[in-house]
Amino acid sequence: MRSWREAAGVRDALPAALVSMPVFLAACAVPDGGLFRAARFRDVHIYQGYAERFLHGALPYRDVFVEYPPGAFAVFMPAAAFGASHYNAAFKSLMALCGLATILLAALVLVELGASRARMLGAVGLLALAPIALGPISLNTYDAWPALLTVLALLLLLRGRDLLGAGALGLAVSAKVYPLVLVPLAGIYVWRRAGPRRAAAAFGVVLAVAAAVVVPFAALDLHGVASSFRSQAERGLQVESLGASVLLAADRLGLYHARVVETKGVAGRNVSGAVPHAVSIATIVLEALAVLAVWLLYARARDARARLSLAFAAAVAGFLAFTKVFSPQYLVWLVPLVVLAGSWVAISLTAVSLVLAQVWFFHYHALFRLAWPTWLLLARDLLVVAVFLVLAGRLARGQPSRWKIRTPSRSKTSRHSELRRSQESWTAAGRGANRSA
User: Fold this and answer.
1) pLDDT tens digits for 80-97?
2) Alpha-carbon distances of 354 from 25, 118, 138, 245, 349, rounded to whole Å
3) Beta-carbon neighbour count of residue 179 at 10 Å?
4) In 3D, which of 130, 101, 171 has the Cα closest to residue 332?
5) Quick one: pLDDT at residue 425?
6) In the predicted model, is pLDDT for residue 429 greater than 80?
7) CB 337, CB 314: distance < 8 Å
8) What is the pTM of this model?
9) Spatial distance between the Cα atoms of 182 and 196, rounded to a whole number of angstroms
């Protein structure tokens, strides 16, 4: 009988994913607005409006203002084929399929990392139950699509499919902006594995795929596409961000008078005023420093392959922790990456943050009135900061004393890339880097 501590293989990953799939579908049906439920929340009605107008001849960005990147239409449009009355159910089903695919890909990532069978079963189990913790947002936004693409990119990179992995990242960037923070990590990994030319080629693929999605829309109306991206970049301090939650808490303590206003163009609520504007700038700086720190730590990591999933999770956590716009569905991006990172502390902190976000989901009016959800919001945001610190701390362990990035010679790159990949993996396993936390 095989031990649970043995390294998992593909033959373990497929059954584990298959067994978890019914659990995942059942978990998707638990929250209000979940699978097989008529209720819908967040932005599904907006997606349907875009899709139906597109089908009736109104071009996105030219005839209709769209607040989402062009790559989002890859999941907005398919559900429209089932008719207006069935769009809600079809879209939720599509997001559930994205979740199922993410579970399978996550299991295969763990195989590449040499994870134990026990760790794999625990990981797919957590992902299968995640919709319960995510609540209504799990299927009512399209964030499962870019989350799936980032896990796919991670798997392809670990398997040595550099250009395909870069293409998956480019597609993810076309759907959401946040995967941009993963592009330098992918570049560093490819550089160290196959040299600078291969890294440059991978970067070119990211740009080419993202451009292939965005340029057709921009050709119809460049101003419309630019306005969409600009509207997101120019957003103020959104009420659920870390900076806003600190100001709301200060208001509750009588230290500051916060004013929540409804935004124009892009739906949402911001904290307005000179102080919030300064805080939003400060959080952007902190966000950039957090992501840059992850890039630098990963560039110096001794085992680039074993730590790639950890670096992915830390970069996204840093991006979210200090972002000036933090809608609850953004945690969908983080969940699979944190599970793959293998830190049970980070997983626990993420789980609690998800549950806290559910508490005020149906009480946003109280949050906008600066009532009791303020403290829960602050706790959620601080937990995400803690997730980042835990992941970055793990990434910082075992850093070499001197900066050194090995670049393989041109003559040996293609001939020995697979050998180096195998040796690197065995070295990591010998140090215990791939064992279950």
Assistant:
1) 999 988 999 999 999 999
2) 19, 24, 11, 16, 9
3) 28
4) 130
5) 42
6) no
7) no
8) 0.89
9) 17
